[in-house]
Design goal:
Elements (H helix, E strand, L loop, with lengths): L7 H8 L5 E11 L2 H6 L4 H13 L7 E4 L2 E4 L5 E6 L5 E6 L5 H17 L12 H4 L4 E4 L22 E7 L7 E11 L5 H19 L1
Parallel strand pairs: 6-7
Antiparallel strand pairs: 1-8, 2-3, 4-5, 7-8
Helix pairs in contact: 3-6
Length: about 210
């Protein structure tokens, strides 16, 4: 963790807090990629999820975790998000992340269908080792709401180290060719500052622009 040493004192300071988490809500502005999705028969949610997860992987600060009392950096994470099953109860979709857009969307849609069809809680991390459980990002979307803020259920604040990202419904089309969506990013403040959330927002918008070319 040589590259982490410049942040070690910040981590130690926030790690001493009972609640070391920072949770920022903001309006994200991105190019309106929905016409591209329609033309290419791609579901917008899964394309946006692709932008979010692949952008998170590019920023080291979102890849730090705490394992056996020490800071580590994971090299990758599983792709997962919440869905509603046929009983309108929350369920979890999980799949292997891909850097290829169409492969990612195909896997994401399949995971969604599997979770929607199950009346029991699926795709949890119960079968994973403690180290494997660190390879995760928590994602939730509430497309019915214009998200203003969110408070996630946290089992133990002091040891919580998995970033959580949430967003609400997309805005209507704008004349300037962009859309907005309200997002919330929660992370351990020993790893992530507001600046890194800003970098994430920029990376998502850049990736969306690159996709539509």
């Amino acid at each position: 963790m040589h590259n982490f040493e410049k942040r070690r004192d910040r981590y130690n300071a926030f790690a001493s807090f009972e609640n070391p988490l920072v949770n920022l809500s903001f309006e994200l502005e991105v190019p309106d990629f929905r016409p591209f999705c329609k033309a290419n028969q791609l579901p917008p949610f899964h394309v946006f999820l692709y932008c979010v997860l692949n952008s998170l992987k590019e920023i080291d600060n979102f890849m730090y975790r705490i394992y056996e009392g020490e800071v580590i950096k994971i090299d990758d994470f599983m792709a997962s998000y919440t869905v509603l099953n046929q009983d309108n109860n929350v369920n979890f979709a999980r799949f292997t992340r891909s850097s290829d857009l169409r492969e990612f969307v195909e896997r994401s849609v399949a995971a969604k269908k599997f979770a929607e069809a199950s009346d029991v809680l699926v795709n949890t991390t119960e079968a994973l080792s403690p180290m494997e459980k660190k390879r995760n990002i928590h994602i939730t979307c509430m497309p019915w709401l214009k998200l203003v803020a969110i408070e996630h259920p946290i089992y133990h604040h002091k040891s919580y180290d998995i970033p959580s990202v949430a967003w609400g419904r997309f805005s209507d089309p704008r004349d300037d060719g962009k859309l907005t969506v309200n997002m919330s990013v929660l992370a351990h403040h020993g790893f992530v500052d507001g600046y890194h959330v800003h970098l994430l927002a920029q990376a998502i918008a850049t990736r969306a622009a690159h996709i539509i070319g």
